[in-house]
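Support case: zinc ion complex. Customer-provided input:
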Amino acid sequence: MICNYIEEIDHLWQRQLAEWDAVIKNYGLLSHVTTRVVELGDSSIVLQHNPERLWSAIASLDKASLEAKPCFLCNENQPTKQETVVWNDLYKIQINPYPIFSRHLTISALEHLPQRIDGRIADMMRLAKDLPDYVVFYNGPRCGASAPGHMHFQAGSIDELPICDELFTANTALFDANNQGIFGIITDLGRPVFYIETLNINLGEQWFNSLLDVLPMKNGHDEPMVNILCWHKSGAWCIAVFPRRKHRPACYGSGEDQFVLSPASAEMGGLWAIAREEDYNNLTLHDITLIYMDVCLSPQDIEDVSTKLRQYYYSKR
Ligand SMILES: [Zn+2]
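Agent response - structure generated as follows:
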């Protein structure tokens, strides 16, 4: 049986927006948030003043704090009003009750398994194809995942994430290309991004895995630090990978000249959800530039990874 997930998820929205008080309240608040746009070279950065996201910006991410809390993605700890659309017997698709997109989904594994992208990029691509109005995203366990103990993606309205349009026309230095797609690096959008665009899901998976293999990994980590976006447009899959060197920037804090900001996939894509009003008012283009430089992989590391990929694909020709 072929499931029509678009229709099922439309119905999920209709029911939850009518019946679940937290969803009614928080999506109502989101529809009134103020935004402003900052131009970073050829990239637009949308700043969104979203006070409801403060819990996420200040969440304790150390192991002890995380283990002390019940997992909010496991069925037994979820609100009784939270409904589910099961996707391919692997993931449950649910409404995210703390949105930054006007349509914001949480897509979590049916089992309580750790947050890892290894072996799951094809799932992400198939989800993106089944959710054509959305961009699916993955925050690594140390790059913004609020439940690193429970594997999950999220998805948000694709027309609200600026980079999804910008990458199609960006200047891409290629590692590999054929009549099925392109794989390269884009360095002129203020944050380096490895970009895959392909008609072939197997090729997309191979290219992604070759990248994951050569990204630097820190001691004690289980995977390279990454944020990943994936969407499906005009028959092609698009994957944007942002390698990270840290989660919170050096300017993180509540003091003077500091910001309560914990950038993750949405921020890498150009949508910054900012909880505190003073941060929303004070953040400048200069601050955004410095934060991207601080939390993304260094130019030298990007060059090292690019060299390895060029050598690998050159040797295969
Ligand atoms: Zn869980």
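The CA atoms of residues 82 and 94 lie 7 Å apart.

Case will auto-close in a few days if no follow-up is received.
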